[in-house]
Amino acid sequence: MPKSSVRKKKIYTPPPELRPQVAAAARKPSPTWVPVTALALIIFAIVWLVAYYLTNTWLDLGDSFMFLYKLQWGNLLIGFGAMIAALVVLSRWR
After folding, report:
1. Count of domains in the chain?
2. How does pLDDT run across 9-45, given as a tens digit for each residue?
3. Is 83 exposed, middle or buried (0-12, 13-18, 19+ CB in 10 A)?
């Protein structure tokens, strides 16, 4: 029985206009303020939400934290807004 010939497939190479022009290694690293700002926003958000929940349920810290009680749902917006802002800042990190 005759042996069948093996087909050789050509390797696909994209046209030059579709290739990325800037190599990943040639891109500049992100500035140092990007991770620092993102980390600060994350820590701020966690501290804000924990302080809100603690002062709202278990602890009575007096009049100095009464503004947290007055904001009510605004506290969640501030905390999660800071986390979303940190995510946006981290999207610029290379």
Report:
1. 1
2. 788 877 777 666 666 556 788 899 999 999 999 999 9
3. middle
